[in-house]
Amino acid sequence: MNCLYWKMLSKSSKYAIKAVLFLALHSSKENKVMVKDIAEPINVPQAYIAKLLQALVRDNIISSVRGSKGGFYLTSENLENSIMRIVKNIDGEDKLTACMLSMEKCHEERPCPLHDILSASRNTILTSLKNKTIRDLTLSVKSGSTFLPL
Amino acid sequence: MNCLYWKMLSKSSKYAIKAVLFLALHSSKENKVMVKDIAEPINVPQAYIAKLLQALVRDNIISSVRGSKGGFYLTSENLENSIMRIVKNIDGEDKLTACMLSMEKCHEERPCPLHDILSASRNTILTSLKNKTIRDLTLSVKSGSTFLPL
DNA sequence: AAAAAAATATGATTTAAATCATATTCAGGA
DNA sequence: TCCTGAATATGATTTAAATCATATTTTTTT
User: Fold this and answer.
1) A59 beta carbon < 7 A from strand C?
2) pTM recorded for the entire structure
3) A47 CB closer than 7 A to any strand D atom
4) Higher pLDDT, B123 or B7
């Protein structure tokens, strides 16, 4: 059985998360990685991921230096960022908070018909995205309990 | 706090669910409702919802007759359809089953780094969408425990 | 300094979802 | 049987996300 594909995350956010995890595993201040060497292994168009990475740099989620010998990398501070922080940077906060039926006034006291189906699960997931850091996910890959693809 | 806005459902699916719930509450074989009288209260463009309703008719999820005195309505059989059935008709099945990071080979034995964050919640939600019928949700509105907007 | 190599900024193009428009078909009433 | 009012089928247009292209800036090396 597959993971659930939630458009909850845009393609851009997914790309960004993959790129950051890649950097977490393969870069350091002493060992920067160029866009082209990120784009290929995570299987994302180079010009596209470049744009996303630039946005993450602006927001201090990842680090970079330009010029020759330049590239992207993560500091140990960067590693402490939550997955949520990446998503908010790319998709914006609004995208994550609204009603399943897009009803303006849906809330606990006046739930839409689908509210109960989703509310608990939603909170579980949002909390995880907020709490899990890049470092956490990186460790889970290093320990062999989760996997990144070719 | 708001419901979670899951793009898990496309706008089209949301529109369709709203329309079907509207029909469940306001139509019967003896009391058909025309598109224009559905479009306005649920706040969806008429030509757009018309197209969606036509797809639902083709799939026997809702009922209709054309010509004067015609319109859309639900039979008691229609009421037993699951919410999932609507979603599958509009968005297709594939959209609901794939990895959060869009990784081809993500599964329980080889989970992606976000798998654990999502897997349980995903199953909970999918099961609910499969089990909840139109009738169930309609009853929850009638009983006053959930609400539909103006 | 000058040149080269990298990120950065900006904007153009493509693609898919959402929206709009219209001609056709079918049911009911005169 | 003909007219009217509705759904139906089909396709055009718009919009936003995804993708591509290129000129500019910054850093390192020579």
Assistant:
1) no
2) 0.84
3) yes
4) B123
